[in-house]
Amino acid sequence: MKDSLYAIIVAGGSGSRMGAAIPKQFLRVAGRTILELTLQKFHQAIPEISIVVVLPEAEIPRWEYICRQEFICVPHVVVSGGQTRFHSVKNGLDTISDPQGIVAIHDGVRPFVSARAIAESFKQAAIFGNATLSVPLKDSIRRKMGESTIAEPRTDFLLVQTPQTFQIPLIQAAFATDYQPFFTDDASVAEYAGQQIHLIEGNDENIKITTPQDLIIAEALYAKNPFGEK
Amino acid sequence: MKDSLYAIIVAGGSGSRMGAAIPKQFLRVAGRTILELTLQKFHQAIPEISIVVVLPEAEIPRWEYICRQEFICVPHVVVSGGQTRFHSVKNGLDTISDPQGIVAIHDGVRPFVSARAIAESFKQAAIFGNATLSVPLKDSIRRKMGESTIAEPRTDFLLVQTPQTFQIPLIQAAFATDYQPFFTDDASVAEYAGQQIHLIEGNDENIKITTPQDLIIAEALYAKNPFGEK
């Protein structure tokens, strides 16, 4: 029997870095909300996937209004988020009861993840328990040491993207803990529970849209390769 | 007396990541070579600056041909590069004899550094001995540990850009050493010589153009804000 596949799309951000009046997941690229583009990407990659969108409670009516007005036709359910990403993801996980399933947890503002990377993350999570996208650093890196900093070897590090994909019983067990301030992402929660994190190759285009510059870049990436035409 | 200002623009790359037949500094954005755009940015920021361009020996005729054909009018001198970035920068430094001067060492494929950041790096290097542009990480980060990796706190790190700007006697003294394989950038050479590295705020647009995706982004950034119109 094939595993059932789920995605939790986390869109809890308030968009403060963007300087915009509305949360960044509702800003538009090519005339469409970033959140819709992200949903569309998952739906196209895996048509049978079950999608859970996590939104701040106060933003749910706005999203429902957008969906109605614009006939957004990617099937999904909506749950309200919590105080931190950890709490938001936990709320999403609480809606899933499928001990055979696999879930990809993904940032709502990363519409440019490739269909290949999504599919690969499910495939590898089925084998290894989890799979997290990562890419090498392009710039040099320095570590803060009090008031000063020191050079670190760039090749010792990897930048982490989403999706971070997990076998459902394993990630639910990991999220059954209390929130810890050092949880940087979902993989760090699984790691805290003793699970070894399995990294797979992400894609360069898979940027997190958080600044006005990112919106310019997003328009260019979308114009070069509109969804559904590759 | 005011310090004399210099820039060493390092364009030694072979462009292997770009998959192009010509080195990436000669690829075009808005119809112009990336290297020309970088020179133009420095010239506009500080018209009296003295610019040294470091190129692979074999690429110098191509650059000279481009300059003649396209009437590139940013004054500069050209020196040939070495086996590594360290050797290339050293060749550039060897052409400067000005114990009062300050030099910004900059990647030839970063045309989007802001005029503000260039000016600030000279100002701060005059005070602190050196000044290096850096920006915070936007993605989570993991450190390699043998076959595995572990989460690191993103806020403990900074990504380093160029220019990396130095008082000339200090950086020449630092480069009077032998090459070390852990030299990741010019600041790491100064650090090895015992100098404390002073970081200043870079600008988000200041990307290093190294992949075909970066070229798409560069076109979008340039279209949004063409040089000379800000």
Q: What is the element layout, followed by pairings?
A:
2 copies of one chain form a homodimer.
Chain A: E1 5-10, E2 28-29, E3 32-33, H1 34-45, E4 50-55, H2 60-70, E5 77-80, H3 85-94, E6 102-107, H4 115-128, E7 130-136, E8 140-145, E9 148-152, E10 157-167, H5 168-174, H6 186-192, E11 199-201, H7 212-224
Parallel strand pairs in A: 1-4, 1-6, 4-5, 7-11
Antiparallel strand pairs in A: 2-3, 6-10, 7-10, 8-9
Helix pairs in contact in A: 1-4, 5-6
Walk me through the structure:
Chain A is an alpha/beta fold and 230 residues long. Helix content of chain A is 32%, strand content 25%. Chain A is built from seven helices and eleven strands. Chain A has helices spanning 34-45, 60-70, 85-94, 115-128, 168-174, 186-192, 212-224; strands at residues 5-10, 28-29, 32-33, 50-55, 77-80, 102-107, 130-136, 140-145, 148-152, 157-167, 199-201. In chain A, the strands form three sheets. The first copy, chain A, has a seven-stranded mixed β-sheet with strand order 5-4-1-6-10-7-11, sandwiched between helices. In chain A, α1 (34-45) packs across α4 (115-128) and α5 (168-174) packs across α6 (186-192). At the A-B interface, β8, β9, β10, α6 and α7 of A face β8, β9, β10, α6 and α7 of B.
- Give me the secondary-structure category of chain A: alpha/beta
Strand order in space, largest sheet of chain A:
5-4-1-6-10-7-11
Count of helical stretches of chain A: 7
How much strand content do the residues of chain A show? 25-35%
Q: Determine the oligomeric state from the structure.
A: homodimer
Poorly predicted residue ranges of chain A: none
Mean pLDDT across all residues of chain A, rounded? Answer: 93
The level of helicity of chain A is 25-40%
Coarse shape of chain A: globular
Strand count, sense and closure of the main sheet of chain A? 7 strands, mixed
The total strand number of chain A stands at: 11
Largest interface: A-B, 44 and 44 residues
End-to-end Cα distance of chain A:
30 Å
